[in-house]
Write a structure and sequence with these properties.
15% strand; 371 residues; Arc Repressor Mutant, subunit A; 13 strands; alpha+beta; globular; 6-stranded antiparallel β-sheet
């Protein structure tokens, strides 16, 4: 039965979540996730909850339901990281969290370990190849990749211009509120029994959503120095800095590995590098100085450096421009150079990016309808 006609509230919720910018492609695993997280009554209300925060009184009026009943359900959902909550002088505002970015993160970034979290971790892992992974790939193909790589600052020489949106330090310094949380990707992997051992306390979120996470006990508020300390730990572990594909204020910086991260797995597992926007830099090997020691290959999260006769070469189509290989090279044979056609990210803000993602999906559906 088509979701708009079904009486099953979880099916209606799944259809609603698929209307989010990245979408939520239908799959049995998604339905199992939603039935685990939401009761039928909660799913019924969540299916009517907009993604943009709305006041309780307004939503209750639209649904012709008592405000105290609606407010109670939404407050409980927010406590469990299933919807966004913001307290204002006019009362509480709530918005449904998409599956990604949203539910997939909040369910694991608190670091809780129990049987229910293990079951959810298995379901989310099984859903990746049917849902979030292909959705990230499709967004990149439409020209609106959600994530973007930031280079490690030390890998770019002093004489080279590095723009503000390429500097993690500048992005963190301009944030008005910062929180530090557990890497939900590596937490999910550990719950599934195959964590990689990389640091987990290195995920940064900024702004109102960071305040929400702290208020719900899913992260801790930190200052600039602590945030930079987390970035340094991530760099020392060889993790890749990833943020939203915007040139303005960022709302997150993840520090990603190629084995667990839902962003980098589009490259390492799905073999679709275009799902993540590379940094405006490219690792270039000087064959005269390269001794083919393989250290660049060892540190690269996406296997971009590969042996080439008696030297190493970097596959430009895979290189994310993070700079870790340049830092690891013992002979200085690798330099970070501006990527050909280097451009400013096409979107200024996160709302502009998500609007482009929605337009791309709508255009694709219209084209399919005329096919």
């Amino acid at each position: 039965m088509s979701p708009e006609f079904t009486t099953d509230p979880h099916e209606r919720l799944a259809a609603h979540l698929d209307a989010a910018p990245l979408g939520a492609p239908p799959a049995p695993e998604l339905m199992a996730i939603l039935r685990t997280l939401f009761s039928p009554a909660e799913a019924e209300l969540a299916a009517a909850l907009p993604f943009a925060p709305v006041g309780v009184a307004q939503l209750a009026q639209e649904l012709d339901r008592p405000s105290d009943e609606v407010g109670s359900i939404l407050a409980d959902l927010a406590e469990r990281g299933l919807c966004f909550e913001r307290q204002t002088p006019r009362g509480a505002y709530y918005g449904l969290l998409p599956v990604v970015p949203g539910l997939a993160e909040t369910q694991f970034m608190g670091g809780v370990v129990n049987d229910e979290k293990r079951r959810l971790a298995r379901l989310f892992a099984d859903y990746y190849g049917k849902g979030p992974g292909p959705a990230l790939v499709a967004a990149g193909q439409r020209g609106a990749a959600l994530p973007r790589v930031i280079p490690v600052g030390r890998a770019v020489t002093a004489g080279q211009e590095i723009l503000p949106f390429e500097r993690a330090e500048a992005m963190i310094r301009q944030a008005d509120y910062i929180c530090l949380g557990t890497c939900y990707c590596r937490q999910e992997a550990e719950l599934n029994g195959h964590g990689c051992g990389a640091p987990k306390d290195v995920c940064l979120t900024f702004g109102p959503f960071a305040e929400f996470l702290v208020g719900k006990g899913l992260a801790q508020a930190v200052d600039f120095q602590t945030a930079m300390g987390a970035m340094e730990r991530a760099e020392m572990a060889g993790l890749v800095h990833v943020t939203a594909n915007v040139s303005g204020a960022a709302n997150f910086i993840c520090n990603c590995c190629g084995c667990c991260c839902l962003f980098l797995k589009t490259v390492t597992q799905l073999k679709r590098p275009g799902a993540i926007a590379a940094a405006g830099w490219l690792a270039v090997v000087d064959p005269d100085n390269c001794v083919a020691c393989g250290q660049c290959q060892e540190v690269c999260q996406v296997a971009a450096p590969q042996p080439d006769d008696e030297t190493m070469a970097v596959d430009a189509s895979l290189c994310l421009g993070c700079g870790h290989c340049a830092l690891a090279c013992p002979t200085g044979a690798i330099a970070m150079q501006p990527r050909p056609g280097r451009q400013t990210p096409p979107f200024v803000s996160y709302p502009e990016l998500t609007a482009a993602m929605i337009r791309g999906r709508m255009r694709e559906k219209a084209e399919e309808g005329h096919a």
